[in-house]
Structures are given as structure tokens and as C-alpha cells.
């Protein structure tokens, strides 16, 4: 009797332990917060670059494996967007070379030692920091050189004398070597916008030799003064997004072909603009938006487009702006009527309507924005 009494509690405890061990324990709930996906890392030189893209062997034996040679080869050689870290050896027969959108950081003589027939090179959007001095002097037929969106700190030396277009925008250029443009009388377009050029980087004779320059683009730099000794044949002068405060008197006097002037986003005031500096008969398009002007400057009757938006202008007097007395104008003489067709004045302290004397004077106006 005593043995049975002592054995039963022990048996009950063992059964309860087995049942408790078989109970399903609740699992911890997964976290609802997702871990942020890290952004893709910029390739780190040299091991993290994606491998260069090599195509199958070409039917042309001198076509580099890194490039594509179309049926029109050797007219054009396409090596763009192929993850290249250096320029392949360019065949002497190539005329147009496309190398944009790669990881190239240096331009060496070795790559172009035989490419004497090149007329066009596009090296945009690479990482070029250095150009060997003798590279381009060995390319006498080169007419177009594009090196935008790189890491250049100065304009390359020994550029070909026959070059017609040089595009170096969106670099880190702070230096233009003395005499670099002296023998480039065929250059028609020089684009240096979006760099870090200051007044001290543009010496007085830096543009000497550019006798046929048509467009000079120095926008998005850190200039405080108008560049001096601009070539007299210039047709388009772009100086937007600088810190220019004044324009010298008679600045445009010797620019006999000037037609387009852009000076928006500067620090110009009425005091910094001589009274008749824009009274130039060749001027067709004038941009003065986003400055600090209080009045409308005097301009020539031949001007067709005038941008004065986002200044501090409070009033506009058509009688003062009109080159001739309104009542004496012969409406049938097209040669006398002012040519202004587009006038933008929004972003100032003006309110509609447009003054009647403005409408009476500028009969060719197609659009005016206030």
C-alpha cells in the first residue's frame, strides 16, 4: 500500500513533464522593418571597375577588340561605353573616333602614334586628368576635339593648328597655358563653360591668334570682369553664371560681328552698365536676366530679343527707349521701325498693362512677358 502511494505521484510528474515538452512554443515574429539596401559603390581604381567589353574578332584585321568597326570602317571607330580604362591602339585609317562614357584617366602618345588621319575625337565623360604633351601635335588633320565632363585642370598643350572645335566644358580647369591658342587661326568654337576660371587665369593676350573664333563660351566660371581682347570676329559670347559686376565702356566697339551676348546670372547693376554700351548695330539677342538692374538699358533698334526677367526694374518708359519720336515714324518704312520682337520682363516689380508708348514704338513685338 505504501509502495503504490509513493509511486503514483512520481508517475504523474513524469507524465506532466512529457506533455509540457510536447507543447508548441511560440516562435518570435520576424521584424517588419526591412534593412536598407546599400547604394551601389562607385568603382574604385583599379580592381572594382567592370571588365572591359571585348567584341568578337572583326572582319577588319586592324580593328581593336575593344571597339566596334561598322561596315563603314575605317570612316568611324566606335569604342564608347565599353568600360575601357585606357585607349587602345588606334589604326592609322580611322577618321572618327568615339571613346566617350568610359573610365579612361590618361591620354598617351602610344595610343595615337599611327592615327594621323583622325579628324574627330570624342572623349566626353571619362576621368581624364592628364594628357601627354605630344599627343595632339601628331594629329595634323584633327578638326574636332571633345573632352567634356572629365577631370582636366588645364587646357591641353600643343593642340593641332587646324582644329575647328574645342569643347572642354565640365572640367576642373583653372589654367590656360600661355600661347596655347597662338597658332589656332582656324578655331571657330571654344567651349570652356562650367570650369573654375578666374580673371587671373585669362591673361590679356590669351585669345590672341584666334582670328576666326565665332563662339566663346565662358559661362559657369568665377569671372568678376569681362574677358579682355576677345577676338574681333566673335559672333556669340556666353558669360552666364559668373560674378561680373561691370562692363567697360566701348567693350563691344571693335566686335564687328557680335550678335548674341549672354550675361544672365551675374552681379550687374545700372552703375556697372555704361549708358550706350549695348547700342551695337549687329546685336540681335541680349540676355541680362537674373541681375540687379533697376532700369531698362538703352539698346540698338536692330535688337530682336531682350531678356530682362528677374531684375529690380520698377518702371519701363517706352518714350525713353524708343530710338525715334513715335509720331515721326513712317509705319510703312520697315527700315526705320525698331526690330524688337521678344521682350521678357517678368520677375521684376512691374504690373500689367504694357505701357502704350512701348506698343506704339516697338511695332514688331510678337511677345512681351511682364
Word description of this protein:
The protein has a domain at 64-106 and 119-134 and 141-151. The protein starts with a helix and ends with a strand. The protein has three helices and 15 strands. The chain has helices spanning 2-21, 318-321, 356-361; strands at 76-78, 96-98, 106-107, 120-122, 130-131, 144-146, 165-167, 189-191, 215-217, 236-238, 260-262, 285-287, 305-307, 342-344, 367-369. α3 links the parallel β14 (342-344) and β15. The strands form two sheets. A 13-stranded parallel sheet has the order 1-2-4-6-7-8-9-10-11-12-13-14-15, with no helix packed on it. Strands 3-5 form a two-stranded parallel ribbon. The protein is elongated, with a radius of gyration of 34 Å. The model is unreliable at 1-5 (pLDDT under 50). The longest helix is centred in the first third of the chain and has 20 residues, at 2-21. It has 370 residues and is largely without helices or strands.
Keywords:
proteoglycan; signal; LRRNT; disordered N terminus; 370 residues; elongated; single chain; little secondary structure; two-stranded parallel ribbon
Summarize the structure.
This protein has 370 residues and is low in regular secondary structure. The protein has helices spanning 2-21, 318-321, 356-361; strands at residues 76-78, 96-98, 106-107, 120-122, 130-131, 144-146, 165-167, 189-191, 215-217, 236-238, 260-262, 285-287, 305-307, 342-344, 367-369.
Amino acid at each position: 500500500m505504501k509502495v503504490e502511494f509513493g509511486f503514483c505521484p512520481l508517475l504523474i510528474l513524469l507524465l506532466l513533464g512529457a506533455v509540457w515538452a510536447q507543447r508548441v512554443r511560440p516562435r518570435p515574429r520576424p521584424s517588419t522593418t526591412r534593412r536598407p539596401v546599400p547604394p551601389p559603390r562607385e568603382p574604385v581604381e583599379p580592381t572594382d571597375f567592370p571588365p572591359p567589353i571585348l567584341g568578337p574578332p572583326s572582319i577588319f584585321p586592324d580593328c581593336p577588340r575593344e571597339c566596334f568597326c561598322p561596315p563603314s570602317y575605317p570612316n568611324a571607330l566606335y569604342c564608347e561605353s565599353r568600360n575601357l580604362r585606357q585607349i587602345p591602339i588606334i589604326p592609322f585609317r580611322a577618321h572618327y573616333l568615339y571613346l566617350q562614357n568610359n573610365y579612361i584617366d590618361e591620354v598617351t602618345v602610344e595610343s595615337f602614334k599611327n592615327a594621323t588621319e583622325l579628324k574627330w575625337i570624342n572623349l566626353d565623360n571619362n576621368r581624364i586628368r592628364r594628357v601627354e604633351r605630344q599627343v595632339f601635335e601628331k594629329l595634323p588633320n584633327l578638326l574636332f576635339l571633345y573632352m567634356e565632363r572629365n577631370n582636366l585642370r588645364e587646357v591641353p598643350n600643343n593642340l593641332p593648328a587646324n582644329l575647328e572645335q574645342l569643347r572642354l566644358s565640365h572640367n576642373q580647369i583653372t589654367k590656360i597655358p600661355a600661347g596655347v591658342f597662338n597658332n589656332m587661326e582656324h578655331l571657330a568654337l571654344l567651349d570652356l563653360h562650367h570650369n573654375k576660371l578666374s580673371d587671373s587665369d585669362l591673361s590679356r593676350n590669351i585669345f590672341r591668334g584666334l582670328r576666326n573664333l565665332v563662339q566663346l563660351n565662358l559661362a559657369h566660371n568665377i569671372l568678376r570682369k569681362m574677358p579682355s581682347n576677345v577676338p574681333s570676329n566673335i559672333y556669340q559670347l556666353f558669360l552666364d553664371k559668373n560674378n561680373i559686376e561691370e562692363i567697360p565702356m566701348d567693350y563691344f566697339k571693335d566686335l564687328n560681328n557680335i550678335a548674341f551676348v549672354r550675361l544672365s546670372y551675374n552681379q550687374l547693376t545700372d552703375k556697372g552698365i555704361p549708358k550706350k554700351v549695348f547700342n551695337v548695330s549687329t546685336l540681335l539677342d541680349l540676355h541680362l536676366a537674373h541681375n540687379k538692374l533697376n532700369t531698362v538699358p538703352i539698346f540698338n533698334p536692330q535688337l530682336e530679343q531682350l531678356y530682362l526677367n528677374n531684375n529690380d526694374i520698377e518702371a519701363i518708359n517706352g518714350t525713353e527707349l524708343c530710338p525715334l519720336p513715335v509720331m515721326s515714324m513712317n509705319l510703312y518704312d520697315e527700315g526705320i521701325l525698331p526690330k524688337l520682337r521678344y521682350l521678357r520682363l517678368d520677375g521684376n516689380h512691374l504690373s500689367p498693362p504694357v505701357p502704350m508708348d512701348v506698343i506704339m514704338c516697338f511695332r514688331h513685338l510678337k511677345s512681351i512677358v511682364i
